[in-house]
Amino acid sequence: MKRKFGFLAGLICLALLCAPAYAEEEKAAKEMDQMVVTATKTETPLRDVAASVDVLDREALELRSQPNGDFIDLLRNIPGMTVARAYAPFPATVRMRGGVGQTVILVNGLPVDFKMSQSIPNEIIDRVEIVRGPTSAIYGANATGGVINIITKTGSENLRAEIRGGGGTSGAYRTSVMTEGREDNVGFAFAGHYGGAAGENVVKNNNNPTIHMINKCKYNKSGAAASGQYDFGRASSVSLFYNYWWGDYMRGRVYYGGEWERNYANIKFNQGFNDMFDMQVNLAYHVDDLLHTYDMGGTNYYTPKQRRYTDYEAIPLDVQFNGRFFEGKNTLAIGYFHNDTSEEQDYRDWNTNQELNLIRYSTETWAVYAQDTWKILDNLILSTGIRYDDWKNYDNYFGNYVNKTPDERTEDNWSPRVGLRYNFNTATSVWANYGQGFNTPTATQLYDDRTAGGNKRIPNPDLQPEKTHSYELGTDHWFGNFANVKLVGFHTYTEDTILSSFTSANTVTNENIGKTKSTGLELNLDFFITPEWSTGGNYTYNTAEVDENPVDRTLEGKVLLYAPEHQFNWDVTYKKPEDVTACLSVRYKGDQHVNATNTKYNALDEQLYMNSSWVLDFKATKTILKDKWILDKADFSFYIDNIFNEKYRTMIYYEDPGTTVYSEIALYFD
C-alpha cells in the first residue's frame, strides 16, 4: 500500500517541480462569476453564495472514469461525500459528511427518489450542482446534509451530434447517441443509450461466509431522454424534459432477478413580468413499475419462491415568485411546494400467484418558503431564508405488521437559515452560515417488518423526526491564477437521530439514538501549473459520533454509521485541447462502521465493518481524427478503475468488483 501511495506522490511532485508556473488568464474571475441556481433558488454568482458549492460541468463529467455508467461515480472525488452501491445494476446512495438519509437528489430543481440518479443518461446532463451543508430552508425535509441538482440540457447554439460505443471488463458494453441544437427561440436535446454486462460483476462475500452471495450478475440498461425549451421573450420560456429508463438483471440464479421501468416528465414555465418581477412554475410526474423475483435463498437456488411487484408515483410541484429591488441588489424569492408520493409492493407466490404480502403507503408534503439575497455592499452579501413544512404519512397497509392499517402520521417544522459572505477582493473571500432542518422517518422504518434481501427488519412506530442545527465557516483564496485554496469548517448537531443499522445477527433495526454531532473540515487545493498540467485534490476530516443517549449510555462516543474520519482525493491532470486529456486519481476512505455499537466482528469472527482503502484510477482520451469527412472529430477513451485491484466495500455485504477496464470510441458531428 505504501508503494501505491509513493507512486502517486512521485507523479504529483514531478508535475509540480518540472512544470513552470503558468497563470491561466482570468481563471479566478471566471470561476467566481459562474452562475449557480441551487444554493439560493435564483441565479446567483458563485462569489455571492455563502455555502459549499461544487459544479460538475460537461468537462468534469467527461474527465474521470464511470464504471457503473452514471454520473454518481464522479461524486467519489467530491469533498466529504461517500457513495454506496451494491453492484452495477443498482442505483447508488450518496452521503454527505457522514449523514445517512440527509441528501436530496433534484432534477431541474425538483426532488426525486434517489433511484432516478442512475436513470438519466450523462449525455443529456448540462451540469450537476452540489451544495453541501444545511439546505432545509430551501428544500425541506431530508436536505440537512445537502442537495445534488441534475440540470439537463436545453440545446446548444449550433446543431451537433455524438455517437459513442465501448466495452470492457465483465462483458460490459454501452452505446449512445446524442443530438442538440437551437433554431431561433427553440432549443432541443435528445439522448438514447443501451448497455449491459454478462460477466462477474459481484465479488463473492469473503468476509461473511454465512451470508450466501452469487458473484455473477447479468444485466441490461437502456433508455432515452428528450428536452426542449421555447423562449417567448422578456425572460419568459417553457421547458420540457422527459426521461424513460428500462433495466433488467439476473443474479446468476435461475429465479433471482428483476425488471425495472421508470418514467419521468417535467415541465417548467418561466414568466417575466418586467425587470423587477418574474415567476416560475415547475411540475413533474414520476412513475416506476418494478419487478423483483426471488428463489428460496440460502443454498436452494433452483426453487422459485415469489415475485414482488412495486408501483411508485410522485407529483412534485413548485411555484416561485421572484422580485429584484434596490437596483438589483436585493433578490427575494417566495414560493409554495407540494409533493404527493405513493408506493405499493405486492408479493405473490411464484407458482400460484397467491398474494403473500401487501405493503402500501403514501406521503404528502406541502410547504411555503422565502429566500432573500441582499448585497449590503458590493462585497458584503447577506442570505436569509425560512421554510415551513407540513408532512403527512397516510393510506398505510403493512400485511405483516401487528396493526395492518397504521393510523396516519403528521409532522411539521420551521427551518430557518442565515448566511453572510464577504469578498475582500477578487482573490479572497470568507463566509459563514447557520441552518436548521429536519428529517422525517420513512414509512418502512415505522412499520415494515418483512424480510428483505435475507435480512429481517424490525420496525419502530415510535420513531421521531430528526432535528438538526448546522454551522459552516469557510474561506476561499486564489494565489494569482496559479493556485486556489478552499477551507471549510462545519459542525452539525442532531437531536433524535434516526439510526437504521445491522445488528451482529444481521437484523436491520431502526431507533432514535439521542443526540449526535459531526465536526470537521474540508480542505481543497488546486494548482494550475501550465496550460496543460494541473493537479489538486481535497482532504476531509470528520468526527461523527453519538453525543448523548439517555436510553443506552454505552452508545455515547460511538462513531456514526458510514462516516469515515478521514477522506482524501488527489488528481494529476493533463489537458491539451483537441488532442489529449488524461487524469490520474487516487481515492482514500477510512474505516466505516455499519452498526450502532461499532462492533467489528460477530461471534463467528465475521467482519462487521468496512476497511479503509486506497484506490487508484486512470482515464485518458485521445483525438484520433479531426475534420475528416462529415466528422468534426473522433476520440478514443480508455480507463482503468481501481488499478491495483484494492479489496474494499461501499456496502457491507458487497465487495467492489476490483480492477475494471473500459474503452470507448466517440464520434462528434458539428
Automatic annotation (TrEMBL):
The lineage of its organism: Bacteria, Pseudomonadati, Thermodesulfobacteriota, Desulfobacteria, Desulfobacterales. Belongs to the TonB-dependent receptor family. Keywords: Cell outer membrane, Membrane, Receptor, Signal, TonB box, Transmembrane, Transmembrane beta strand, Transport. Residues 1-23 form the signal peptide. This is Iron complex outermembrane recepter protein. It comes from the Bacteria. Pfam families: Plug, TonB_dep_Rec_b-barrel. Residues 229-643 form the TonB-dependent receptor-like beta-barrel domain. Residues 46-147 form the TonB-dependent receptor plug domain. One of its GO terms (molecular function) is siderophore uptake transmembrane transporter activity.
